[in-house]
Design goal:
Blueprint lengths: L29 H4 L8 H14 L2 H6 L16 E13 L6 E12 L2 E14 L2 E8 L1
Length: about 140
C-alpha cells in the first residue's frame, strides 16, 4: 500500500497497538500500515486508520480513503493525541462483504482537554481492499 514518504516512525512490532485492540502493533495494525497487506475486514481497516491518526500517518489515511470522497491532501494536527478507540457497532464489513459500516468512538487529548469523536463510517471493498468512504448520518 503506497503511502507518503513523510511517514512517521512506527512503533516496534512488539509494543501495544495504538488502536487499543490488546494486540501488539506487529500482530495488529502494523500488518496493514507497515507491511501493506490489505485489511480483511472493515473493522480492521477502521482500527488501522485510527492508528494512522495516532501516528500522524496522513499518507496511509489517504491511501485507504475511497477515491470518490478522498481529499487531495490531509493536514493532521500534531497537537492532538489519539488515545483510545472503541468499536460500538458494525454492520457487515466481513471478508466476503462488499460494503460495511463501523460505528466508533475515538478518544483524544488536545491542550489538556479530553475529547471524543463518535461516528458511523461507511466502507467498501473493491479489488480485495477495503476503503473508507464517508461518515454517515
Amino acid at each position: 500500500m503506497p503511502h507518503s514518504s513523510e511517514s512517521p516512525e512506527f512503533p516496534a512490532p512488539g509494543t501495544r497497538c495504538p488502536c487499543t485492540s490488546g494486540l501488539t502493533f506487529g500482530e495488529c495494525c502494523g500488518r496493514w500500515i507497515v507491511d501493506g497487506l490489505p485489511a480483511p475486514t472493515a473493522v480492521q481497516l477502521m482500527r488501522s486508520r485510527f492508528t494512522a491518526f495516532a501516528l500522524g500517518d496522513a499518507g496511509y489515511l489517504l491511501a485507504t480513503w475511497h477515491p470518490s470522497t478522498r481529499p487531495r491532501e490531509l493536514d493532521l494536527d500534531p497537537t492532538v493525541s489519539w488515545t483510545r478507540l472503541d468499536i460500538l457497532r458494525t454492520e457487515r464489513g466481513g471478508p466476503l462483504d462488499r460494503a460495511g459500516v463501523v460505528e466508533f468512538a475515538a478518544f483524544s487529548r488536545h491542550d489538556g482537554e479530553r475529547g471524543v469523536q463518535q461516528e458511523a463510517s461507511s466502507f467498501v471493498r473493491e479489488d480485495g481492499r477495503w476503503s473508507y468512504v464517508a461518515a454517515i448520518d
